[in-house]
Design goal:
Layout (H helix, E strand, L loop, with lengths): L6 E4 L9 E4 L1 H58 L10 H7 L7 H10 L1 H15 L7 H17 L4 H24 L5 H20 L4 E2 L4 H4 L15 H19 L1 H11 L1 H6 L4 H27 L1 E2 L7 H11 L11 H21 L3 H28 L1
Antiparallel strand pairs: 1-2, 3-4
Length: about 400
């Protein structure tokens, strides 16, 4: 039997309850090649955008720093003249711009930015799985807040850091398992199911924390996980960043070399064809949403490690940053496309946008407009990518 997307069923269901699915060779080869080329193009485009953002902010900071120094020099000369003191010569604007010490392009800035993007990057790994499968998760920010509050609550109760962190991670997995049950058993669309969890998790976080921050002894979670200068020095970046790298490698292996990864792409490409081909779509969704929830829980632990308090209001809007990072990295909101490396680049883009705006002195309200515009642009680019692929 051959399905509408070119999948061919062989034999009966095995021990896992999933039939053996063999793609039709011709359709799979052409489709895979086209998808890989699009992913490569999207990833290269994201890398180019990241470089342009870094270079653009570096130039803007260089110019702003030089002009600020020129303004200060002029004001100082005017004060000296009004007091009858010898006037210090004022260098030209170009000289001050050229000689300005730009701290944006420094190792400390890159390490600090990497630490800031760890939470979004880790959550983006789980979101990559969900979006490739054709789903969405709007509860990420609230679940991160709930897990960070859970970690602080456990630490304040006398738990050691490791069990407290594991409790937060498991709580994140349970929240996403609840999302998956609503989607697969109650047949609630992912947008509504996760939107409901967005409110439930945020409310639970506020209730658990008594609607205030929880101060707790963070231990090594606060002193060793997200540090600017790691020890030993040969680590180069903090253990939190290395955790993100290892997780990204694990997700990449899952997507590229396991049957689960192939099934996730198949469901995102055409859920109906996957179901007709014998895939247990509901079981796969339960598994991947739970895995994504564990990554969200880990992101909440990293959020606590960065803030060292359990704040029920933290990570407001984090789900938008996570979704934007995945889409900027080349994933399609309609499912069937996405890459781990692209999502990492997207997370870096979001982090450098915020850090660059802070260095330039952009007001917070303008930053929110910029981030919102980037999210709209990312979704628009996804639409144009899908339209060009459909016509190509």
């Amino acid at each position: 039997m051959r399905s509408e997307k070119g999948f061919k069923v062989q034999g009966s269901a095995g021990a896992t309850g999933v039939s053996s699915v063999t793609p039709a060779p011709a359709l799979l080869t052409v489709g895979d090649r086209a998808r890989k080329l699009r992913q490569l193009f999207n990833t290269l485009g994201s890398l180019a955008a990241l470089l342009l953002i870094i270079i653009g902010f570096a130039v803007a900071i260089q110019i702003k720093g030089g002009l600020d120094q020129h303004r200060y020099a002029v004001e100082r000369a005017q004060r000296q003249q009004s007091l009858g003191l010898p006037v210090t010569p004022v260098p030209s604007k170009w000289e001050l711009i050229r000689d300005y010490e730009n701290r944006f392009l420094s190792v400390n800035t890159f390490r600090s930015t990497a630490n800031q993007m760890v939470s979004v990057g880790i959550a983006a790994m789980g979101m990559t799985l969900i979006i490739i499968s054709g789903g969405i998760d709007l509860s990420v920010g609230s679940v991160m807040a709930l897990t960070s509050v859970c970690v602080a609550f456990c630490l304040r109760a006398g738990w050691s850091p490791l069990p407290a962190a594991l409790a937060g991670i498991l709580l994140g997995g349970l929240c996403s398992l609840a999302n998956a049950l609503m989607i697969t058993r109650l047949k609630v669309v992912p947008f509504i199911a996760t939107l409901g969890m967005w409110g439930i998790a945020r409310g639970l976080a506020k209730g658990l924390a008594g609607e205030q921050k929880i101060d707790a002894p963070a231990g090594w979670l606060g002193t060793s996980v997200l540090v600017r200068e790691p020890e030993p020095a040969w680590l180069l970046v903090s253990p939190g960043v290395w955790t993100l790298i290892v997780l990204a490698l694990a997700v990449w292996i899952l997507l590229r070399y396991t049957s689960l990864g192939r099934h996730i792409f198949a469901i995102g490409s055409n859920e109906t064809a996957s179901r007709l081909s014998g895939l247990s779509v509901e079981r796969i969704k339960l598994l991947l949403y739970t895995l994504a929830g564990l990554t969200t829980g880990l992101a909440g632990v990293m959020q606590f490690a960065r803030l060292t308090v359990g704040d029920p209001t933290t990570a407001m809007g984090a789900e938008l940053d996570v979704i934007a990072a995945v889409v900027i990295g080349g994933a399609s909101l309609s499912g069937g496309e996405g890459s781990v490396f692209g999502s990492l680049v997207g997370a870096l883009i979001m982090a450098f946008l915020r850090v660059g705006c802070d260095h330039v002195g952009v007001p917070s309200w303008v930053q929110e407009i910029v981030i919102g515009s980037v999210i709209v642009l990312a979704v628009a680019l996804d639409y144009f990518r899908r339209r060009s692929a459909a016509h190509g």
